[in-house]
Structure formats: C-alpha cells, structure tokens
Amino acid sequence: MFLSVFDMFKVGIGPSSSHTMGPMVAAARFLQQMRAAPFEFAGVRASLHGSLAFTGVGHATDRATILGLAGFLPDTYDHARAEAVLAQIAETRQIVVEGLPPLQFDPKTSLVFDYGPALPGHANGMILMGLDAQGDVILQETYYSIGGGFVLSAAELAAGRATDEGAPVPYPFKSAAEMLEMAKTSGKTIAQMKRANEISRNGAQGLDRGIARLWEVMNACIDRGLNTDGILPGGLNVRRRAKAIHEKLQAERGMNLTAPHVINDWMSAYAMAVNEENAAGGQVVTAPTNGAAGVVPAVIRYWLDHVPGASASQIDEFLLTAAAIGGLVKFNASISGAEAGCQAEVGSAAAMAAAGLCAVLGGTPEQIENAAEIALEHHLGMTCDPVKGLVQVPCIERNGLGAIKAVSAASLALRGDGQHFVPLDAAIETMRQTGADMHEKYKETSLGGLAVNIPNC
Questions:
Q1: Which tens digit of pLDDT belongs to each residue from 332-390?
Q2: CA geometry: angle 153, 295, 384, nearest 5 deg
Q3: Residues 6 or more apart from 36 whose CB is under 8 A from it?
Q4: Strand ranges for 251-316 from DSSP E
Q5: Could you read off the pLDDT of 254-267 as tens digits, one per residue?
C-alpha cells in the first residue's frame, strides 16, 4: 500500500478538500474526456448529489464545479482570474475553454443540487454531462470526491482504484502492526521507511523540494490568518479571532503572571488562523483535508516556536511520519467527513500530528504508533455538523482543540515505552465501524447536531 506524502498533503484552496477541491478536479478531468471524445459538444451540465448537494452552497461546490469546467485546478488557482471568469460565464452563459468549442452553460439551470438519495458509490457524488446542439447528453461520467481532494470515477471506484496499483515499494505496510514489524526488522524509523517508499516511486529529485513547499504554504497560511481580521463570508457573520488572540498572546509574552496553560491558546491561534483562511477560500494544504487543515501546521509551528531544540531541518521527518499514519487511516477507514464524520477529518489530522511530533521529539516507532492511537481514540464518534454547511462552526475551533489533543497524545506516548492497551489498527477499525453506523444527518449534511440547534441566519 502506498499513498504519497503529496497525496496526504496537497496545496489547494478552501473551504473544503472534498466539496471544493474534489469537484474542481473532477470537472477538470471531465474536460479532458470531452477533448478526447469524438463528439461535437455544444454544452455542459452537472448535478450534485448527497453531501455535495446538502452542503454544497456553503462549501462553494457550485463555484468549484464551474471553475473546474472552465479549466481551473486547485494547485494553480488564481483568485482574481477566477472571479473574472465566473462573471463572464454568468453574463454570457457560456464556458470558453481551450480545446473545445464554446459550451452553453447557465449557472442558474445547468448545475443542479439533487437532494434525493445519494449516489451508490459514496456520499459525495456528482454527474457531469456533455451535450450536443439539441441539448441531448452525448457523454456522461459519474465522479466521487472521496475526501482529501481524492477523486474517482464510478468505474475506478468499482474497480478498487482507491487502493494502490503501482510498482512495489521497499516497505509496503498496510497496517500499523506491519509498519512496526518492518521498522523493527529494518532498524529504520517510520520517516526513513516512508522516504524510501517515496524515492522508489517518484525518485529523490523533488521530494525535499516538494516537502519544503508544503511547509512554506502551511506557514504562510498561518501568518496570513494571524494578520487578518474581519467577518468570514457565507452569512453566519463569524468574526475572525486568530489575529486578536495572537496579539494578546504577544503582549503577554515574558510576563511572569502568564499561566502555563496559555500555551494551549498559542496552539489554538495557529490552528484557527489556518481554518479562518480556509473558510475565506484562501490557499491551504490539505492535512489530510481542508476542514482539518489547521491541526498539523499548528503543531509544527508550536514545536518550532515553543519547544527548545526544535529545528526546521526536521520538518520532513514530521511530515513523512504524519503522512505514513494518514495513509493507514485512509487505506483502512476514511478521511472523509461525509463518509465517517469529523472523527475522520480532525481525528485523523490529530493522529498524524501526534505521530509527527512524537517522531521529531525522539520517539521510537512504538511510541509514535501509541501517540497516533491516543489522538485518534479520543476523537472517536465525533460528528460533522457544520452550521449552514459552512466550514466555520464548529470546524475552526475544533482544529485548535485537535492540535492540543495531538500535543498531549505525543507527550503521553513519550512518557511510556510504546507498550499500550489499544493498538492503532484497532482504533482505525473502530473509527471505520463508527462511521458506518453513524446517522447520515451527522455526516456533513447539516441536517443534525449544531447545524439544526444554532440559528444560522
């Protein structure tokens, strides 16, 4: 089993990896199919299903789908150009994109939110259709956005393309137990095994550069969030808070009256800064999703800024270790809130962050596995109930608490010798089962929980 560090961490845009980035990627893929098809297209249409329909407006799924059909991709997204293209499409009711004739598309009628039953493959489903001059469908594809920006067609999902099909890697662990056994046999750390796997697939060139860019984007996102205030878009009138909290913390720094627990406020400020940027549609790194994007960078920033002896030279060790844990969660359970609730998003992110922190603090593979298990175990059962379908309440604060739990989990694991009662594999399987049992209204549909108990207009 192999999921690259660049699968688990992707540069993209907010507010959602599954509801914004995924549909944009799917629409761009459909463009490629249209270009390759032996048909004369005159129009295009889309329908959103399941969670993509119920919370699509709040997650900007409609906007992302249209932009994807206009040729945009998350990692090269240009906000100013996107605004201009959306305005042009609204005015002309046409999409003009390279390699195809002008395509009729009315944003008010050509994109449908279908609130009926979800499509059979996944809670996040969408159907894209190419039309002829009479408006008849001559090409159609169903896509599923399965979390973290990953997209599969219906055929790929049915064929098991969610799993790895590439050449063998040196350390093909599919479970935490296998990972620990390989670490013991090889004498390598989790990060070293992960690095060897990455190099065997994609070569050494670009790996360090790519990891450096991930942290550069993460850190820049924190800094933007810490320096921006105002009201977040979407209609809830949620105020950005990270800037004000950070300013108060800076003013208190060095004062002997500051309580030790204030370090939690620093972690929360870092995480909230990221998720406020995400909620505003800014550039973030999925870690492993947009809704949970603040946990990993907040823990790295906490480690770099507040832990003696921390060094930026170890960031690759942190992210490679975190990616290894995230890959296990995704392979054996889910990182999708629409599939398994927020335990799959912030819970997975906390497990990844705990493992990464434990690694750079000198933890053994057994202690790292323990740290990930502690963090995930104490997110089990967490629902995804965003108010008004926006990635704001409770998502922004939840990332702060996820970061705090991750640090606590790493610290507890380092106090032990790696032996513990609940294996990480058991926690991952429990998360999968809990997600399967969870009522749909608690899985990113905004039909239950806080979403129906908080006035949102």
A1: 999 999 999 999 999 999 999 999 999 999 999 999 999 999 999 999 999 999 999 99
A2: 55
A3: none
A4: 283-285
A5: 777 678 999 999 99
Please give the domain boundaries of the chain with CATH numbers for all domains. Answer: 16-158 (3.30.1330.90), 176-453 (1.10.4100)
**DSSP symbol at 75:** G
CA-atom Rg of the chain in angstroms: 22
Residue showing tokens 């001059």 = 133
Paired residues of 114 in beta bridges: 49
Q: By the 8 A CB rule, do 270 and 301 touch?
A: yes
Alpha-carbon distance values, 190 to 316, 327, 413 (Å):
12, 12, 16
Residues 6+ apart with CB under 8 A from 46: 27, 65, 69, 110, 111, 112, 126, 127, 128, 129
Token couple for 15: 């507010």
Six-digit token string for 13: 């845009």
pTM beyond cutoff 0.85:
yes
Q: Are 28 and 70 in contact (CB under 8 A)?
A: no
Residue 301 to residue 269: CA distance in whole angstroms: 11
